[in-house]
Amino acid sequence: MGDNGHQEDNVPELNHLFSFRKIADAVSPYNVARYVVFGVPFDGTSSFRRGSRLAPDTVRLAYDNLESFEFSYGVDFPSAAICDMGNLQVGEDVSEMVDTVESVIGTIMRSGKVPVMLGGEHSVTVGAVRNLPADTIMIIIDAHSDFRDEYMGNKLNHACVTRRALEILGAGRIFSIGTRSVSKEEYRSEEWKNVRFFTANEVRMKGISAAIQEIESRNPSRIYFSIDMDGIDPSEAPGVGTPEPYGLNAVDVRSLISHFAKRIIGFDIVEMTPVYDNGNTSMLAAKLIQDFIGSRETPQSLF
Ligand code: MN
Ligand code: MN
User: Fold this and answer.
1) Does a structural domain hold residue 303?
2) Is residue 5 part of a domain?
3) Which residues pair with 197 in a beta bridge?
4) Which pLDDT score is estimated for 1?
5) Kind and range of the H or E element at 56?
6) How far is CA 62 from CA 43, 59, 88, 282, in A?
7) Which residue of 89, 92, 195, 258 sits 20 to 30 Å from the alpha carbon of 80, by its own alpha carbon?
């Protein structure tokens, strides 16, 4: 069982020569941080291509390549008060993992900080949603509806995330964008109408601004934002567990994030699988973190 070491293992006069992997701009201690990054290396219910447990550190590595200053937003990330807690220690059991995420995100949110969670598979999001105040709107980027009541005998399977979120948040609060893979049973279920699924094709025809407007019509004051990387087209994000052609453009996802950023109270990026990546997916995931924090911190929006 690996961990990040214990305080007594450290040699103060040598500390500046060693590092364990963190987001490069995460230079703040927890008590003063506004953003708290952590990884959840769990892919136990993934059905097709595993490997998302390796994603958090791969995203951190890709992040090293980014400038610490975000030119588009005029934001200097080392001043944005980011802390990186490392990776959660998780076992094989999905419900135990979800309970642990629930308690970690609860602690972060109660301290008035914004969690930035790196999956792992999409099941990790259920632990976050359990903490959301009743009036929260949820925006999900995903190729899949994730609307099965259970899959492979498990209600916490990554194919059931939107369904679980609906049970917690209630009808009319979830906007899932990029949908293009849905089973007949999901589509015909009674609950289907209780989530607004924007298909990827609808976004292509009407533009992302139509989705933004429709979400705005609900006057959201608090938003939770979950990015399943397979919502983005495989040409831009090939390293995912269950790729699906004809997806969203990354720039549209960026527009959504930057439009709503100042109201986002929690953020996650999931389902990235470095094993199948050419480097672009981890790079994009790292950039999406910067887009989120940059547009949340910027004095003026460019969008
Ligand atoms: Mn998903
Ligand atoms: Mn998906």
Assistant:
1) no
2) no
3) 176
4) 38
5) helix 55-63
6) 20, 5, 20, 6
7) 89
Ligand nearest to the CA of 234: 2
Q: Which two tokens stand for residue 136?
A: 């929260």
SS3 7: helix
Res. 148 pLDDT band, cuts 50 70 90: very high
CATH code for the domain in which residue 215 is found: 3.40.800.10
Ligand 2 ion: residues within 5 Å (CB) = 142-144, 228, 230
pTM: 0.94
What's the 179 CA to ligand 1 centre distance in angstroms? Answer: 10
How high is the mean pLDDT of the chain? 94
* Smallest-distance ligand from the CA of 179: 2
Number of domains in the chain: 1
Q: What angle do CA 142, 108, 165 make, to 5 degrees?
A: 35
Q: Ligand 1 centre from 158 Cα, in Å? A: 6
Could you give the dihedral angle defined by the CA atoms of residues 70, 294, 126 and 111, in that order, rounded to the nearest 10 degrees? 120
